[in-house]
Amino acid sequence: METLFQAHSGLRYLVLLVGAVALVWFLVGSILQKPYRPPAPAALATFAGLLDLQVLLGLTMWAGGRRPERVVEHLACMIAAVVVVHLVSIVQRRRRDPTGYALPLAGVTLALALIAIGIRALGRSIF
């Protein structure tokens, strides 16, 4: 269980890094009014995939009995972040003309805010 905790704890830095890179990418794309094309979808998909892995590790620890104080708030924020990122990804893919960066920018920003709140709910440092 300790190895799982270390993996979950360490993966947060990669999740935050990839989220920050996606945020900057979408911000620049939005400012420069570039078309939404590769590698932008890959940035969103990578962030979503890492977030999925992070939640899977967290739920596995929770199911295994590791339940620190305020874990419910933590889980709620993290699951909400995953839902936001996946909804944005689905909507962006289904658009007939997915040209803008506004939706992915807003989604990644909201997800990162939820992640930060969720990390702080456990009393942990974001960085």
For the structure shown, list the relevant keywords.
127 residues; mainly alpha
Helix percent band: over 70%
Mean pLDDT: 92
Query: What is the count of helical runs?
Result: 4
Low-confidence stretches: none
Largest sheet features: none
Characterize the overall form: elongated
Strand percentage lies at under 5%
Radius of gyration: 15 Å
Instruction: List the helices and strands in order.
Output: HHHH
Roughly how many Å apart are the termini? 23 Å
Number of domains: 1
Count the strands?
0
Class of secondary structure makeup: mainly alpha
Summarize the structure.
The chain has one domain.
Describe the structure.
It is built from 4 helices and no strands. The chain has helices at residues 2-31, 40-63, 71-94, 102-121. It starts with a helix and ends in a 6-residue tail after the last helix.
Chain-wise SSE layout:
Layout: H1 2-31, H2 40-63, H3 71-94, H4 102-121
Helix pairs in contact: 1-2, 1-4, 2-3, 3-4
